[in-house]
Structure formats: C-alpha cells, structure tokens
Request: fold
Amino acid sequence: MATSIDNRYEFIYLFDVENGNPNGDPDAGNLPRTDPETNYGLVTDVCLKRKVRNYVQLKYENKPPYRIYIQEKAILNKIHEEAYTSIGVENKGEGKRKGKGEDVEKARKWMCDNFFDVRTFGAVMSTGINCGQVTGPVQFSFARSIDAITPLEISITRMAVATEAEAEKQGGDNRTMGRKNIVPYGLYRAEGYISANFAQKTGFSDDDLTLFWEALKNMFEHDRSAARGKMSARKLIAFRHSSRIGSAPAHMLFDLVSVIRDGDGDIPARSFRDYRIEIDRNNVPEGVELIELL
Reply:
C-alpha cells in the first residue's frame, strides 16, 4: 500500500438538482429534505458518501484494495470472518466475539488495507465478530441549498395495473394515480474535512485522495434515476495545508468562497447560471494552497 497523506485538507463541493429529489426524507413521505425553520434544502453526509462508494465500486468492481464495506445487502459479519481467516486466526465464537487485542488490531488493519470506504470514511466493525473501530479521515457536513427551496408534489398516472382483480375493480380503466416529489431547482453547498492524522491510522493515501476527488466530480453521472432528475457536480475547491496539523481554522477557509445570486433575486433560480462564485484569493492564509479541482 502507498504511504498515507501528509497534509490536511478542507474542501467545498457545489452540486445542483433540476426537477428531481436529491435526498428524500423517510420521515416526511420521501419529500426532499428541508430545514423546517428556513426551508433551505438539505442533503445528508450519508447520502453523499453513498454516491462516492457507488462510484468506486463501479470503477473497481469491488476488488481490493478498493472493495466497499458498506453496500446493499452486505452481511457485515461474514466480511469480519473473512478478515480473521485472512490473518490466519480461526474464529471459534458462536456468532459473538470480543477478540484478543492483537487479533483485533490485525483484523482492523486488514479491513483498512482492502476496503476503500473503511480507510476513507471509517466504520464500526465490532458487530458480532470484532474487527475494531475506525475513525475515517474524510468527513462531510450536510449539504445545504444556497436559497430556500420549494418542494413540489407532481401527480402522475400509471397506465398498467398489477393484478387482474385490480383491473376489474377499476371497471376497465387501468389508470392509477401516483405522486412524485421534486425540487424545481436547487444549488447545494457541502463542506468537508480531510485529516492527515486519521489518514495515518487508516492508510488513506494520495492515490485514495485522487480517487475521492474523481468520485466527487463524476459520481452523479452514474447515479441517474427518474426520482433524482438532473444532478450535476458544479464546483470543487480544496484547501491544502502545508502540514498535517494545518495552518488556519477550517471556517476561515470556507468563508473565502461565496456563492452570490445574480440577476433579479425576486425570481426563483432555475439554473447554475443564476449564481456566481466569488473566491477571495488575496486573503488565503500563509501555508494554505487553494486548488480549484472543478
């Protein structure tokens, strides 16, 4: 494996949605997530991490060292068993294992070496067979829309029915009604953090970092669905510190980038062209490099 990164990073990620639902809220009938006090749209960190995982899994076909630990229908304890088998330790537990400290550490390292999302985002791997816990070097904030959004509920019709009984009940009219929840347009901003100190513990390398940036730029291109509408990565700005510890607080760096509404603010935004990105390059602190990746 390559050596871990030696520099701290922060990043700002802008993406937008057009006539789609970027992140449904299961507690609200799958309506687009919003802050109820402001009506600003929200996309969770978990949602963004899922799309990164999906991109890496698609590119590397779930092969080491880019396997994905958290995936649909994965049985995590079977993966933990695989870790113990690979390090040459027989699992004699009855579905429950505390594990010796030395064995747990070896299993944890094996998981980091083989699974991209474990060494990137971290994982709790102590369910059943214990492979330890990992705090990942890469963390997202919730993404928040630049302006308040107005979720719409659109009526749709289905021309087919599922059963003969359903067809007879409708008297020959096969049409059924449904609902679709969308945001007409929303530009979202997420902020993130990459710790070189945690990277040293998981083995998160420069190659992993390059793949992470690649995933952020391309993940929406392989995540199309009728529900999500048109989603696009619009801007990715990274702040590279000259050391592991860092040269400035993260919030000071985030404040250097502003998203400004262009044109008539009384008319709802319907395009990325309705905004402009302003970067205060003159006040980038010493020891920090601003990098526009997209």
The first strand starts at residue 9 and ends at 20. The chain has a mean pLDDT of 89. The first helix runs from residue 45 to 60. Residues 1 and 113 are 7 Å apart (CA to CA).
